[in-house]
Design a protein that fits this description.
about 40% helix; eight-stranded parallel barrel; 19 helices; three-stranded antiparallel β-sheet; alpha/beta; about 550 residues; 16 strands; elongated
Length: about 550
Amino acid sequence: MGAVQLYDATLRDGMGGGGMTLTVGEKLRVVHALDELGIELIEAGFPASNPKERELFELLAGEQLHSAEIVAFGMTRRRELAAAEDPGLAVLAQCFAPVCTLVGKSSPLHVEKVVRVSGEENLRMIAESISFLTAAGKRVLFDAEHFFDGYALDSGYALECARAAFEAGAERVVLCDTNGGSLPMRVQAVVEAVREALPRTALGIHTHDDSGCGVANALVAVQAGAGQVQGTINGIGERTGNANLVTIIADLQLKMGIELLPAERLAKLTETAHLIDELLNRSPDPAQPYVGKHAFAHKAGLHAAGVRVDTQAFEHVQPEQVGNSRDLIVSELSGRATVSEKAAEAMVELDDAAAQRTVERVKALEHRGFQFEAADGSFELLMRREGGAYVPLFELESWRVLVEKRADGHVETEATIKIWVPSRADGRRLVRTAEGNGPVNALDTALREAIGEIHPHLREIDLVNFKVRILDESKGTGAVTRVLIDASDGRRSWGSIGVSENLIAASWDALVDSLEYGMQPARERAREGAPLAGERSRA
């Protein structure tokens, strides 16, 4: 195995996934993020397909990139058209991109039933299209579409397609598992056979994840001699997605010893993966290998104790290598040492007795339906209460919510809260009423109106996600509900939780925790200086 070239197809093939869309400006941000990561070839799109793609390529022509080259994607010429007359090829020849990737058929099934031409005509379409672009000064890659399926039907013809591309001037022939149905044993055997049949042809691999083997298939192809690997960030793409380039990069470098990126760029892997999800308005997969929130999280007491002694006991690589961090999850499985470590990270002083009380409190609450894995804000408040460092924003006297639906279908929601806030005297009673588009919004608005002047930082705290889960469905509308709220002040995010048979009561508890966490004295110090120990962004 020699050097391996990284080819990203997020902006073209990745956009084929359901719900995937980016503006031109967002695509530019993706290009620069991939460039900073160290990707060598970025397939920016299909410039002949639509006005958005054309605008992107016009803008990219003026962008300065450090590591990457932009690739324009297109298809071999249309049947019954000369390459010089094909409008799609003309766009590729005229665009600024130095590299073009052409996709063409290599399966007799698709040649006969999709393109509806003879096998000989398909070979001419491949060769003439590549020759036209190389004559225009382009470096050309040939994506041999459905290669593994075609090889199973007629290995000789599939090889003829690859040979025609190479002899016409293709820099590399990329073997595509377009349907994603191949298994690693098959992929490795076919790539080895192609290497033997076409020893002078540089090969690449492009896999999909329909059989759950997209990453594995890419890795074995590299082992068999492919010198380029294609994929998308976070594995987005049509159907079940493309091979996840994030995982491939980490596996190739950290497991297979192939030097792809300098250490400082490999450490951008988590940041890059999360940025792409953020731009696509997706929540990052917490279980994603290497970069997921839970990739280096330890919940069981035995595991948490093990990583304290030696991280290799339960971690296959150091999380810092890919820009991630270790996390000890607090649950009913945790021990006192885990709680003490979480307290130290949050700058909360807990003696052994307070740590043990916290453990017992967590066990009791989780028995009632609480879960602190996604509610770090609520857990820190729990530690503060047990350690005597809890500073409440207010004391509740009562709250009330009125919901009225009128005959015309219009719904009005009104909330009234009565609270006591600390003052130089014994306290001040505040009563506020506010309307909202629902009970939680109305309560949130009333609470902010009551204490917003006292705590101006509340204006910076936004509720960014609200999730409800029914814990015992058999009880129907009388079931216990769990509410999780994600909040952010623009620099960091945190979660809070509430559990009750009353949905609004659970929502109120989670809402109050989310605001109180952001207003704790230690958080005030962090805003004025350095972040708290162990704190990380969850954007």
